[in-house]
Design brief:
There is one protein chain. Helices cover 36% and strands 25% of the residues. With 526 residues, the chain is α+β, with helices and mostly antiparallel strands. Strands 1, 2, 17, 18, 19, 20, 21 and 22 form an eight-stranded antiparallel beta sheet that branches. The protein starts with 11 loop residues before the first helix and ends with a strand. The N terminus is likely disordered.
Amino acid sequence: MPVHDDEAGPSADTEVHGILGLDPEPDEGTGAGSDTSRVAGWGRVFRGNRTLWIVAGVAVVALVSGLLVGTFVIARSDADAAPEPGLVTVPVEYGQLTNDVTIRADVGYADAVDVTIDTSSVSGPAVVTGQVPAVGAQLTPLSVALEIAGRPVIVLPGELPAYRTLRFGVSGPDVAQLKHALAAVGIDPGDLGSAQFDQATADAVAQLYAAVGYPAPPSPEGADESYRAAQEGVRSAEDALASANQQLAKAGSGPDPVEVLEVDNRIASLQRQIAKARAEAPDTVPDLEGELAVARLQREQLFAGVDTSAERSMVDSAQGQVTAAYEALERARQEVQPYLPSSEVLFLTQLPRRVDDVKAVRGNVLEGVAMTVSGAAVRLTGAAAEADARLLTVGSPARFELPDGAEVGAKITEVTAQEEGERWLIALEPDPLTPEQVSQVQGSNVRVRIGVGSTEGEVLSVPLAALSAGPGGESRVEVVEGDPREGAAAKTRLVVVEPGLAAHGAVEVAPVEGELAEGDLVVVGR
């Protein structure tokens, strides 16, 4: 059956109010209670949808702010142009300018070398038995660098390494070096102009061993016995000569026995002198032999007219035996003279030397490098490009900084060109350092400044960027007299200058046209 409007249930207004959380409106007939009900309903709408209302409010505020910024701020930014930048200026300075070459240098002890000992003269294993130096020890003349098989290795000044045993009778540059080394430590080796190992040299070697507290090396095996046998041979030869002379004296009655004895003694003396001279002074032998010939002629004249040829032959033979016996004695004597084995001497240049490293171990057989030594003086070694190196000279002063910040002076000792394209070697010697400073800097790499030019006294200087070229090629600077912040509107003036030494980005200037003083602002950029 059709439903009429008044019977159709809640109206459309009722449905809307229900969705918003309001009560349906009362009928018109309800009166004053109708307004109160609406207010209460809107309150419930706000409380029930608070988040929605807050979001809506924020959106409205953002919209209004954007409109204001677009209208006022952006418009004002377009209206106000960016300010013009000012001039870039630097004040004129007054002081001394110096130009330096700066290099990096390694610090160490000078002239490090590896030390090897020629042990070929050692009989048996070359065992290190003592005197092993500690790292940092100094080797000086007459130091004992090592002890090998109970024998010392004596340090002496010299450049030529020991390569053979030096003994009586040998000669050469190594003997000459030994003589000069002995003289340098206060031991007299005899004639320094001679390269011969003679008796004076042998005596000096004996003194050398005494100075270091060791006995001289023992004689070669059998040498002492040979020397004693040679002495006995001389006595036997002299007895035979005396007997032959007696028989000759009996054979002839003419000559006076005293005269004969004097001549015979003269002949025997000359024979001994000749034997000794052949070993020690060969250049005197011819004269002595001449005197011997004269003495023999004198003796022959004493027996002239008497046939004593047989006895004379016996005497001559006996005299020859005496000469041979003395020569054998001299050779045997030389064999027992002090000598210097190659294993017992170490020649080093530039003493004293510092021990940097020790390879030798006590109780082990010595093989290869025994130790590494260097000069006792500290040395700085660096390199520089050819263009910079050509500005440096030996003796030029330099400065470098220690790790603790202290600055130390130095001087150049070597500037050596290398192969083309390679950096040059620069060596420097520092001023005297304390032991503490040496320990600080040893083995480090330092920055070294070497002055290669400076102004004579204090001068005006400006940055290189402040110089500009005038229409005639002259150098000039632009001096600001106004406020540099005014930019192109600032008042400036040009001053013609004469440039001088340039160093560290600055250049010496002297005003030629216009005035320039310390503190004036010069333009270096716009």
